[in-house]
Specification:
This protein has 217 residues and is mainly alpha-helical. It has ten helices and no strands. The relative contact order is 0.09.
Protein backbone atom coordinates (compact mmCIF):
# COMPACT_ATOMS: atom_id res chain seq x y z
CA UNK A 1 0.00 0.00 0.00
CA UNK A 2 1.46 3.31 -1.07
CA UNK A 3 2.08 5.92 1.59
CA UNK A 4 0.44 9.30 1.03
CA UNK A 5 2.65 12.22 2.02
CA UNK A 6 0.75 14.65 4.18
CA UNK A 7 1.04 18.35 3.56
CA UNK A 8 2.20 20.34 6.53
CA UNK A 9 -0.17 23.34 6.82
CA UNK A 10 2.34 25.35 8.82
CA UNK A 11 5.06 24.77 6.24
CA UNK A 12 2.70 25.70 3.40
CA UNK A 13 1.65 28.89 5.21
CA UNK A 14 5.28 29.79 5.93
CA UNK A 15 6.18 29.28 2.27
CA UNK A 16 3.32 31.51 1.11
CA UNK A 17 4.29 34.15 3.67
CA UNK A 18 7.92 34.10 2.54
CA UNK A 19 6.96 34.41 -1.13
CA UNK A 20 4.71 37.37 -0.32
CA UNK A 21 7.52 38.96 1.67
CA UNK A 22 9.79 38.71 -1.37
CA UNK A 23 7.14 40.07 -3.74
CA UNK A 24 6.58 43.06 -1.44
CA UNK A 25 10.33 43.64 -1.35
CA UNK A 26 10.48 43.44 -5.15
CA UNK A 27 7.85 46.15 -5.49
CA UNK A 28 9.76 48.38 -3.10
CA UNK A 29 12.96 47.90 -5.07
CA UNK A 30 11.33 48.53 -8.46
CA UNK A 31 9.65 51.69 -7.16
CA UNK A 32 12.98 52.93 -5.81
CA UNK A 33 15.52 51.78 -8.41
CA UNK A 34 13.55 50.79 -11.50
CA UNK A 35 13.12 47.33 -12.92
CA UNK A 36 16.41 47.10 -14.81
CA UNK A 37 18.51 48.12 -11.82
CA UNK A 38 16.77 45.84 -9.34
CA UNK A 39 18.79 42.71 -8.53
CA UNK A 40 17.99 39.59 -6.53
CA UNK A 41 20.52 40.83 -3.99
CA UNK A 42 18.53 44.07 -3.65
CA UNK A 43 15.33 42.13 -3.11
CA UNK A 44 16.93 39.85 -0.54
CA UNK A 45 18.40 42.79 1.37
CA UNK A 46 15.11 44.68 1.38
CA UNK A 47 13.28 41.59 2.62
CA UNK A 48 15.95 40.92 5.23
CA UNK A 49 16.63 37.47 3.78
CA UNK A 50 19.49 35.72 2.04
CA UNK A 51 19.71 35.61 -1.74
CA UNK A 52 19.57 31.83 -1.44
CA UNK A 53 16.02 32.14 -0.12
CA UNK A 54 15.06 34.21 -3.16
CA UNK A 55 16.56 31.56 -5.45
CA UNK A 56 14.80 28.80 -3.54
CA UNK A 57 11.36 30.34 -4.00
CA UNK A 58 11.66 31.87 -7.48
CA UNK A 59 14.82 30.42 -9.07
CA UNK A 60 15.42 33.50 -11.24
CA UNK A 61 14.78 37.22 -11.49
CA UNK A 62 12.45 36.64 -14.43
CA UNK A 63 10.27 34.29 -12.39
CA UNK A 64 10.23 36.73 -9.49
CA UNK A 65 9.17 39.62 -11.73
CA UNK A 66 6.50 37.53 -13.45
CA UNK A 67 5.03 36.53 -10.10
CA UNK A 68 5.17 40.13 -8.87
CA UNK A 69 3.18 41.31 -11.88
CA UNK A 70 0.74 38.43 -11.45
CA UNK A 71 0.27 39.36 -7.81
CA UNK A 72 -0.46 43.00 -8.68
CA UNK A 73 -2.89 41.96 -11.42
CA UNK A 74 -4.69 39.44 -9.18
CA UNK A 75 -4.95 41.97 -6.37
CA UNK A 76 -6.48 44.55 -8.69
CA UNK A 77 -8.85 41.99 -10.25
CA UNK A 78 -10.14 41.05 -6.80
CA UNK A 79 -10.77 44.69 -5.86
CA UNK A 80 -12.32 45.35 -9.28
CA UNK A 81 -14.83 42.52 -8.87
CA UNK A 82 -15.71 43.62 -5.34
CA UNK A 83 -16.31 47.18 -6.54
CA UNK A 84 -18.53 45.85 -9.31
CA UNK A 85 -20.59 43.97 -6.72
CA UNK A 86 -20.87 47.06 -4.53
CA UNK A 87 -22.49 48.85 -7.45
CA UNK A 88 -25.48 46.52 -7.28
CA UNK A 89 -27.59 46.17 -10.41
CA UNK A 90 -27.27 49.75 -11.64
CA UNK A 91 -24.74 50.22 -14.48
CA UNK A 92 -24.18 53.83 -13.37
CA UNK A 93 -23.51 52.80 -9.77
CA UNK A 94 -21.22 50.04 -10.95
CA UNK A 95 -19.26 52.43 -13.16
CA UNK A 96 -19.02 54.96 -10.34
CA UNK A 97 -17.70 52.27 -8.00
CA UNK A 98 -15.05 51.18 -10.50
CA UNK A 99 -13.86 54.73 -11.13
CA UNK A 100 -13.71 55.43 -7.40
CA UNK A 101 -11.73 52.23 -6.91
CA UNK A 102 -8.93 53.49 -9.15
CA UNK A 103 -8.35 56.41 -6.80
CA UNK A 104 -8.49 54.53 -3.51
CA UNK A 105 -5.29 54.65 -1.42
CA UNK A 106 -4.99 50.86 -1.63
CA UNK A 107 -4.84 51.08 -5.44
CA UNK A 108 -3.62 54.57 -6.33
CA UNK A 109 -0.54 54.51 -4.13
CA UNK A 110 2.70 55.95 -5.51
CA UNK A 111 4.82 52.83 -5.00
CA UNK A 112 2.29 50.56 -6.67
CA UNK A 113 1.72 53.01 -9.50
CA UNK A 114 5.49 53.16 -10.12
CA UNK A 115 5.60 49.37 -10.35
CA UNK A 116 2.63 49.26 -12.73
CA UNK A 117 4.24 51.79 -15.06
CA UNK A 118 7.54 49.91 -14.90
CA UNK A 119 5.86 46.71 -16.08
CA UNK A 120 3.82 48.51 -18.73
CA UNK A 121 7.03 50.07 -20.04
CA UNK A 122 8.58 46.62 -20.46
CA UNK A 123 5.48 44.83 -21.78
CA UNK A 124 6.20 45.35 -25.49
CA UNK A 125 9.58 43.66 -25.24
CA UNK A 126 8.59 41.04 -22.66
CA UNK A 127 5.97 38.56 -23.99
CA UNK A 128 5.27 37.20 -20.50
CA UNK A 129 4.37 40.66 -19.17
CA UNK A 130 2.31 41.40 -22.26
CA UNK A 131 0.32 38.19 -21.87
CA UNK A 132 -0.51 38.95 -18.25
CA UNK A 133 -1.45 42.57 -18.96
CA UNK A 134 -3.53 41.66 -22.01
CA UNK A 135 -5.40 38.94 -20.13
CA UNK A 136 -6.61 41.36 -17.49
CA UNK A 137 -7.01 44.39 -19.75
CA UNK A 138 -9.39 42.49 -22.01
CA UNK A 139 -11.58 41.69 -19.01
CA UNK A 140 -11.59 45.27 -17.69
CA UNK A 141 -12.23 46.75 -21.13
CA UNK A 142 -15.14 44.39 -21.71
CA UNK A 143 -16.78 45.32 -18.40
CA UNK A 144 -16.27 49.08 -18.85
CA UNK A 145 -17.55 49.06 -22.41
CA UNK A 146 -20.61 47.03 -21.41
CA UNK A 147 -21.45 49.45 -18.60
CA UNK A 148 -20.98 52.45 -20.91
CA UNK A 149 -23.24 50.87 -23.53
CA UNK A 150 -25.97 50.16 -20.98
CA UNK A 151 -25.82 53.75 -19.70
CA UNK A 152 -25.84 55.13 -23.26
CA UNK A 153 -28.88 53.03 -24.14
CA UNK A 154 -30.73 53.89 -20.93
CA UNK A 155 -30.04 57.61 -21.21
CA UNK A 156 -30.54 57.94 -24.94
CA UNK A 157 -27.04 59.34 -25.43
CA UNK A 158 -27.11 58.55 -29.13
CA UNK A 159 -24.12 60.77 -29.89
CA UNK A 160 -21.82 58.66 -27.72
CA UNK A 161 -19.88 55.53 -28.61
CA UNK A 162 -19.33 52.95 -25.85
CA UNK A 163 -15.88 51.96 -27.11
CA UNK A 164 -14.72 55.55 -27.25
CA UNK A 165 -16.07 56.18 -23.76
CA UNK A 166 -14.27 53.13 -22.43
CA UNK A 167 -11.01 54.46 -23.90
CA UNK A 168 -11.63 57.91 -22.41
CA UNK A 169 -12.27 56.53 -18.93
CA UNK A 170 -9.16 54.34 -19.05
CA UNK A 171 -7.09 57.30 -20.25
CA UNK A 172 -8.48 59.45 -17.45
CA UNK A 173 -7.44 56.92 -14.83
CA UNK A 174 -4.00 56.41 -16.38
CA UNK A 175 -3.46 60.15 -16.51
CA UNK A 176 -4.38 60.61 -12.86
CA UNK A 177 -2.11 57.71 -11.88
CA UNK A 178 0.76 59.28 -13.83
CA UNK A 179 0.17 62.61 -12.10
CA UNK A 180 0.30 60.82 -8.73
CA UNK A 181 3.63 59.27 -9.74
CA UNK A 182 5.50 62.21 -11.24
CA UNK A 183 4.02 65.12 -9.31
CA UNK A 184 3.32 63.82 -5.78
CA UNK A 185 3.77 67.24 -4.15
CA UNK A 186 0.74 68.59 -5.97
CA UNK A 187 -1.26 65.36 -6.03
CA UNK A 188 -4.63 65.72 -4.36
CA UNK A 189 -6.86 62.67 -4.13
CA UNK A 190 -10.07 64.62 -3.51
CA UNK A 191 -9.38 66.84 -6.52
CA UNK A 192 -8.73 63.79 -8.66
CA UNK A 193 -12.02 62.25 -7.50
CA UNK A 194 -13.81 65.49 -8.30
CA UNK A 195 -12.30 65.49 -11.79
CA UNK A 196 -13.77 62.03 -12.37
CA UNK A 197 -17.18 63.14 -11.09
CA UNK A 198 -17.15 66.21 -13.34
CA UNK A 199 -16.23 64.12 -16.35
CA UNK A 200 -18.97 61.55 -15.72
CA UNK A 201 -21.51 64.28 -14.97
CA UNK A 202 -20.80 66.11 -18.20
CA UNK A 203 -20.81 63.01 -20.37
CA UNK A 204 -23.72 61.19 -18.72
CA UNK A 205 -25.73 64.07 -17.16
CA UNK A 206 -28.85 61.96 -16.59
CA UNK A 207 -26.92 59.43 -14.54
CA UNK A 208 -24.18 61.40 -12.75
CA UNK A 209 -24.23 64.75 -11.00
CA UNK A 210 -21.34 67.17 -11.05
CA UNK A 211 -20.51 69.08 -7.87
CA UNK A 212 -22.43 72.11 -9.11
CA UNK A 213 -25.65 70.28 -9.98
CA UNK A 214 -25.54 68.35 -6.73
CA UNK A 215 -25.39 71.59 -4.73
CA UNK A 216 -28.45 72.93 -6.53
CA UNK A 217 -30.67 70.04 -5.39
Amino acid sequence: MALVEKTNPKRTAARAERRQQLIDATMKCIAKKGMGSTTLSDVAGTAGLSQGIVNLHFESKDNLLNETLRYLADEYRTQFDKALQRGGNSPADQLRALMELDLRPSICERRKVAVWFAFWGEAKSRPAYLRICDEYDRYYDKVLERLCQEIITDGGYEHLDAGAMRMALASLTNGLWLSCLINPQNWDRSRASNAVRIFLGNVFPKHFKTASTASED
